[in-house]
Structure formats: C-alpha cells, structure tokens
Amino acid sequence: MPDQVRLQDVTADNWRAVTRLELTEEQKRLVANNVYSLAQSKFEPQARPRAIYAGGTLVGFMMYDLELDDTPPQAAIYRFMIDKAHQGKGYGRKSLACAIEEIRQVPGIKSISISYLRDNPVAKKFYASLGFVEGKDDGDKWGEIHAELAL
Ligand SMILES: CC(C)(COP(=O)(O)OP(=O)(O)OC[C@H]1O[C@@H](n2cnc3c(N)ncnc32)[C@H](O)[C@@H]1OP(=O)(O)O)[C@@H](O)C(=O)NCCC(=O)NCCS
Predict the structure, then answer these.
(1) Is 150's pLDDT higher than 90?
(2) Could you give the number of structural domains in the chain?
(3) Distance 89 CA to ligand 1 centre (A)
C-alpha cells in the first residue's frame, strides 16, 4: 500500500533527512526544530525520536518520552510535526494512532500525555478528537497545555 503510515527509528541513514523536514513560517514557533530534538535525544535516554513514513517517503517527525522507572511508568509525546508539503493528507492522524499503539505495547503504561501551546487551535481540536482530555489548568509557565489519553 503506497500510503501506509509507519514509525521508524531515526538512524545514521535518515537523520539528515529528518533535519530537512519543514514547517510553514507561521508553524515554526509551535514546535522545537528537529535538529534540537535529535540533539536532545542523544542526552536524554528516555527520549524516543521517531521518523514518520508514508510508504517510502519520510513525511514527519515525532518524539516521546518513556519514563520506565516512574511508578507507574509514564509516556509523554512532546514533539510532533508533519512536513508542510505533506500536511492535510491524514498522515498526522495515522502517525499519532501508530504512536499510541506503539506505546500501548509498553508494559505498565496506563496513559499518554501530550503537550502543545495554548494558542494552537489545530492541535487542540485534533488531539481531542483522538480522545485526549485536557487538564484543568490553563497552560503552564511556557504556555503549554497538557492533555491525557487513558489506555
Ligand atoms: C498538527 C499536525 C501534526 C497535523 O498533521 P497533518 O498530517 O496535517 O494532519 P491530518 O491531515 O492527519 O489532519 C488531522 C486533523 O487536523 C486538522 N488540520 C490539519 N491541519 C489543519 C489546518 N492547517 N487547519 C485546520 N485544521 C487542520 C484536520 O482537519 C484533521 O482533522 P480531521 O481528520 O477531523 O479532518 C501538522 O499540522 C503540523 O505539523 N503542525 C505544526 C506543528 C504542530 O502544531 N505540532 C503539534 C504540536 S507539538
């Protein structure tokens, strides 16, 4: 199936392509750039950087944390972007579903949290449609909202 969406490791073969994925000018403030995220993932062992493919094409990037030593273990998705040339084709929805399934396989994880900026109405509506429920607060000191999906 040409459009099958899947998550793959970021490796020596694809990391440069991941850094070349682009957002629109207006979207750049919504998520840290991928160079930063990949650097961060080298020093934070809980980070799971994932390349998003549709068929054989790299279309986006996601990063989540698995805090396996916490009680209970925690999962948190905090970077998510689809390249501007590939947005609006359903890849965001499908790749998030893949991430949820991937995290569901990790023993002990009971919920997934996700964070996004308060003034990102697309993210808010999108995550709510997948079952994420926002916390009561109106955003933390960085203006980030945290929502949670029970598994
Ligand atoms: C949010 C994002 C990952 C969605 O990826 P995508 O591949 O375009 O999403 P999809 O095509 O699967 O669409 C998902 C939903 O978002 C909505 N959506 C996507 N882009 C939209 C836009 N520019 N305006 C309004 N709604 C939009 C769609 O209507 C869709 O809802 P539906 O399935 O009910 O129709 C992508 O827009 C992106 O990278 N945005 C910039 C970075 C960002 O905001 N990341 C999330 C916070 S960390």
Answers:
(1) yes
(2) 1
(3) 9
